[in-house]
């Protein structure tokens, strides 16, 4: 997996490598020339080569960085199989308890606490009879910085979501509005088929499978996505010419705030 990750990192920077090679080639062929026009020409040709490499959703960074980097990205991309499998196993266990066994959250938490307290209590009292030291129960304190960091991150994401909804509702981009309506409709259909816990579990499984599969077969996926995007743009152009362009639109007046 480490070799595969390194190979993918090299492949992700293919565009930059091509750009560097073109730049070096131009400098080797004409090292004595340092005019600004030549520099602009080199940059233009390098940008043209880089632009020809299609990436899904216009991605310019490696998949690992798109997922935020750090430990979460390592888990989703299975950099450490034991940790990724453990996290997915815990999520599957929680889903089985609440969905298949129909456990309730309060009941499960109380049963776990009863079992843990009973084991620790019996161990503490039996340690004097079996000549063993009593269990060391660690003192758990949640740091204030951690709570503030989580709250700040949630606040930023919540404000970003509100800004996106406001931008869609403002009517500036019809394509964005239609995509949002379609996405919400799909979520409503999925919500009628499964409950929220199952949807969260399906999303969690997708996060553990789709990114790593895309990283492995990104060339094939990007080629297919490029064709699909061209076809979608073609169909949207037809829909725009036959339907959207015929919708009457009133004059828009810019309102200036005093």
Could you explain the architecture of this structure?
It contains eleven helices and no strands. It is mainly α and 258 residues long. Helix 6 packs antiparallel against helix 10 (196-216). Residues 30-34 and 252-258 have low confidence and may be disordered.
Q: What order do the helices and strands come in, and which of them pair?
A:
Layout: H1 2-12, H2 14-29, H3 36-51, H4 63-66, H5 70-76, H6 81-100, H7 105-126, H8 144-169, H9 174-193, H10 196-216, H11 218-242
Helix pairs in contact: 2-3, 6-10
Give short descriptive properties of this protein.
about 260 residues; mainly alpha; 11 helices; disordered C terminus
Oligomer: single chain
Cα-atom radius of gyration: 28 Å
Number of strands: 0
Overall 3D form: elongated
How many angstroms separate the termini? 60 Å
Quick structural summary:
By secondary structure, the chain is mostly helical.
